[in-house]
Amino acid sequence: MALRPTTLVTLGFIVLALVCLALGDFEISAHDPWRSIGQLLLGLIQPDFSSVDSLSQALLRTVAFAFVGVGLGAGAGMLLALCFHRWWVRTFSAFIRAIHELFWALIFLQSFGLHPVTGVLAIAIPYAGIFAKVYAEMLDETDPLPLDVLPRRAGRFSKLVYARISQAWPHLVSYTAYRLECGLRSSAVLGFVGMPTIGYHLMAAFAQGHYSTVGALLLVFYLLIGTLRWWVRPRLLPVYLLVAPFLLGTGLPIMWSNVARFFSEDIVPAPLRRGEGLAALWEWFAQLFMNQALPGIWNTLLLTQIALVATGVLALALFPVISRHFTGRASGMAGHVMLVVMRSTPEYMLAFILLQLWGPSMLPAVVALALHNGGIIAHLVGRRSNELQLRQDAPRGVDRYTYEMVPRLYGPFLALLFYRWEIILRETAILGILGIATLGFYVDSAIQEIRFDRAMVLILITALINIGVDVLARRLRGYLRLRHGVNRQQC
Amino acid sequence: MSDFVLKDAEAHYGATRVLGPLSIRIAAGERVALIGKSGAGKSTLLSLMFDRWQAQNVALMPQALGLVDTLSVFHNVYMGRLDRHPWWRNLVTLARPWRRDIDEIVALLDEVGIGEKRWAPCGELSGGQRQRVAAARVLYQQGDLLLADEPVSALDGPQASHVMAKLTQGYPRSVLAMHDLELALAFCTRIVGLKEGAIVLDAPSETLSSAALQDLY
User: Fold this and answer.
1) Contact A158 B85 (CB under 8 A)
2) How close, in Å, is residue A80 to chain B by CA atoms?
3) Which of B54, B62, B82 minimises the CB distance to A159?
């Protein structure tokens, strides 16, 4: 029997992941991992809200950074979207979104320091690249007829606003609101590199072993994201956007001489700075590539492939918990809550927590990536399954799962998984900052050693790999003819 | 005001010629009805005319109407005159329209019988209501020539006559693709019959009867 292309690709990915699994390091090195997990769970059950001051402060900063960052990103993204037909705008957007928020934060930390500008730009820049692409697609999808019937001499701006933006408006708004949720997660995670958001307090609480404070912070974070649709109202948005810049805090003052030196000297490759010529530059680059970039790339790809397959397995196993074909009202609710918690927790935060519990290896990273991404894909596939109509005498239980559901959902499932491939890779690279030897680890080390030129080259390499995987995933989707409904949920 | 003339015009779909070559002149005061079986080339001729003449002062009411579903009835009508105002005024109008514009547009909407829907998004309207919004838009737009494709196909008896009267009075010239022969004869001064992409009939309407036109079908 000849294997179908989807089966072939699936098997290929599984075999590749198994090979990677054999090559990677998956040891639990912590002293007593179960005790730590128990402590954390206890902290979640008995959260300590007593440090209300710092808690509300952390919350406020998290929201403020998210609003200002996403707001600026959306504005800039719209401007880019309007000239998206130019190739250099598309390339530029692809490039800025290929670099993760945390990398941007690391870059700006070295120049602007612990100033709010660092956090705001770290969110705004990559988000602008994403907004540009999605906004441009949404504007392209509008009906061209209203534009045709407009008076010919109407101004370009008026035409644009009345005939294109107005049509796309509901999509633009709902996507931007969705991105705001992503922005809250990004903002929380920026705390891990020193911004005054939830991540910072989480790290501090862990360091001091205050598990009940950790529990409180996590619960407040879930509450913040879970209630988003009640407090983020289109009418209130302008108010939030106006107020948010004043709630960022002051941070440390910007040293402009630092900024100038960073961009004019620090990031220039050392041999060029010292005027040693092209041969020396090549030598420098070759060294960097062989000793840091290559191992980093290797580990990043290894981890990505394992995490991708683990994500897929988890998503296929979990989508029934929110599918009406498998659950009743109450169990469906419980399933929803579970998936919300899974997908609301940023990978970085999860990986940080698991690293504390299990000690450094690839295991926490894979589990964190699989839980977060699996939660998202399970949610989307489950929702898709709810659109299916089964005949009344359809089989039940496992037979229903294997005969009625999976065959119908496998195509969309694969499409979604390939969409997340690039995102998983982005995240894998970044998890290196936590000490797993992916690209982020080498970037972070270079920054610790104050070798910003190396850090920049490594970040550029990461961005290029991101773009490469994105292209590959698009090819694969084309080859498998996976048509997707418009899915832009990607953070 | 130049005349509107097509000379040996053709339209192609891929390699096949679907229309023409045909010539036609629309003089001031003429109200032309295009009639013919579906597929005879009425819509093709209208869009060809729009293509050729759009540099002149032409308003178009296509069969699909071209409304923006997410905007209100008022704003869809206002779009007819986007070219008369600077961009910032159009932008402000999106959030808060001028009283003067509201009065003028609501008067127009009242004439076609949907004044009370002025602030409803077009996406919420029925087919007949949408058609009247599009009619109000071209009435508001004004110009030297109106090109309309089945402008009253979704309206019933008296309402159809009423909107037809408004449309034909609102422009010094008009070309309307019609399938209702009675309406065409009642409101147009000239009937142009199309068959397989060619003009097979071109006569003043007072010389024709609805029975005579049946031959075209």
Assistant:
1) yes
2) 20
3) B82
Give the closest of B68, B84, B85 to A166, CB-based. B68
The DSSP code sequence of B112-168 is TT-GGGTTSBGGGS-HHHHHHHHHHHHHHH--SEEEEESTTTTS-HHHHHHHHHHHH
A153 touches chain B (CB under 8 A): yes
- pLDDT surpassing 70 at residue A488: no
Per-residue pLDDT band for A486 (boundaries 50, 70, 90) equals: very low
d(CA A211, CA A37): 10
Mean pLDDT of A404-408: 83
CATH of domain B1-57+146-217: 3.40.50.300
Distances (CA, A) of B167 to B49, B152, B175: 18, 10, 10
- Co-location of A1 and A141 in the same domain: no
- Does residue A65 register a pLDDT over 60? yes
- Is residue B2 scored above 80 in pLDDT? no
- Average pLDDT of the residues in B70-89: 90
Instruction: Give the 3-state DSSP-derived string for A435-491, with helices as H, strands as E and coil as C.
Output: CCCCHHHHHHHHHHCCCHHHHHHHHHHHHHHHHHHHHHHHHHHHHCCCCCCCCCCCC
H/E stretch holding B78: helix B73-78
- The dihedral built from the CA positions of residue B73, B76, B81 and B87, taken in this order, carries a sign that is positive
B residues 66..85 contacting A (CB < 8 A): 66-71, 75, 79-85
Mean pLDDT in residue range A179-204: 91
Question: Does A361 map to a domain?
Answer: yes
Query: Which residues in A lie closer than 8 A to residue B81 (C-beta atoms)?
Result: 151
Within 8 A of A170 by CB-CB distance, chain B residues are: 70
Total tally of structural domains belonging to chain A: 2
User: Closest to B82 (Cβ–Cβ): which among A162, A169, A170?
Assistant: A162
**The domain spanning residue A88 has which CATH number?**
1.10.3720.10
Q: Which residue would you say has higher pLDDT here, A400 or B193?
A: B193
Q: How many CA atoms lie within 13 A of A264 on its CB side?
A: 6
In chain B, domain spans: 1-57+146-217, 68-142
- Whether residue A331 sits in one domain with residue A404: yes
Contacts of A146 in chain B (CB under 8 A): 66-68, 79
Task: Compare CB distances from B87 to A149, A155, A166 and report the shortest one's residue.
Answer: A155
- CA of B61: which chain A residue's CA is closest? A149
CB-closest option in A149, A159, A161 to B60: A149
Residue indicated by tokens 């690293």: A355
A282 and A329 assigned to the same domain: yes
- The larger pLDDT score, comparing residue A489 to residue A231, is at A231
B66:A155 CB<8 A: no
pLDDT in tens, B95-108: 899 999 999 999 99
- Residues of A within 8 A of B86 (CB-CB) are 155
Same domain, A161 and A309: no
CA distance A88 to A108: 24
Q: Look up the domain containing A181 and give its range.
A: 57-214+233-249
Contact B68 A151 (CB under 8 A): no
A443-468 pLDDT, tens digit each:
999 888 888 888 889 999 999 998 88
Report chain A residues whose CB lies below 8 A from the CB of B82.
150-151, 154-155, 158-159, 162
